[in-house]
Design brief:
This protein is of the alpha/beta class. It contains eleven helices and eight strands.
Length: 211
């Protein structure tokens, strides 16, 4: 029996990947005078935003982070939203068990998204990329949640939209679930052989009802 529900954020709970890409593009244009495509931005993902900026230019990393955050908050409603069907699933789960987010996003962007979308009250714990020393697919973030909730890996599932999310869940020993609705590459995600895959949040909610 599951005793905790764990989630990725961008592409899983929220349609916010384009927001992140646009915030990076705006920031790099302003500080580095360079133009990037969204695909080039997505290829940088892994470290938190702070980590990405440090890799680009350590001397401007702090200033770039502030520019990024200003754009990210200002344009959140324009570029990001909760996926339809996610809230009913979270409401069902919230009645039964604690919920956590494990995301590669930095703490401040993650909290902005949770606050702006109204998702913050559903979650007992948020582990961001700023909280860990080793990023996904290392299981450190999930392991921190398991320890905080005092449960075993077999008592939790992790829902994510990328192959890295499935790898992370596998390494942590939790049930690996695929959110196909937000996946940029469904075939690559399915090749990781998740324990279950859902085409829509409604399918996931139906699965939750059967728990």
């Amino acid at each position: 029996m599951f005793k905790a529900a764990l989630f990725d954020l961008d592409g899983t709970l929220t349609d916010s990947m384009n927001l992140s890409a646009q915030a990076f593009i705006h920031t790099f244009r302003k500080h580095l005078k360079r133009e990037y495509t969204p695909e080039e931005i997505f290829a940088m993902f892994g470290p938190s935003e702070e980590g990405i900026f440090r890799k680009q230019d350590e001397s401007q990393a702090k200033a770039m982070m502030e520019t990024f955050l200003a754009f990210y908050r200002r344009c959140h409603q324009q570029y990001a939203a909760v996926y339809p069907g996610v809230l009913p699933a979270l409401k069902l789960l919230r009645e039964r068990m604690p919920l956590a987010v494990i995301t590669g996003k930095g703490k401040r962007p993650a909290l902005i998204t949770l606050e702006e979308t109204g998702l913050a009250p559903y979650f007992d714990l948020v582990i961001s990329g700023s909280c860990v020393q080793r990023h996904k697919p290392d299981p450190q973030g999930i392991e921190m949640v398991l320890q905080a909730f005092a449960i075993s890996p077999q008592q939790a599932f992790y829902l994510g939209d990328s192959p890295v999310d499935i790898k992370t869940a596998r390494r942590a020993g939790v049930t690996a679930l695929a959110a196909l609705w937000g996946a940029r590459d469904r075939e690559s995600l399915l090749r990781q052989q998740p324990d279950a895959a859902f085409a829509s949040p409604e399918e996931f909610a139906a699965w939750v009802q059967k728990l």
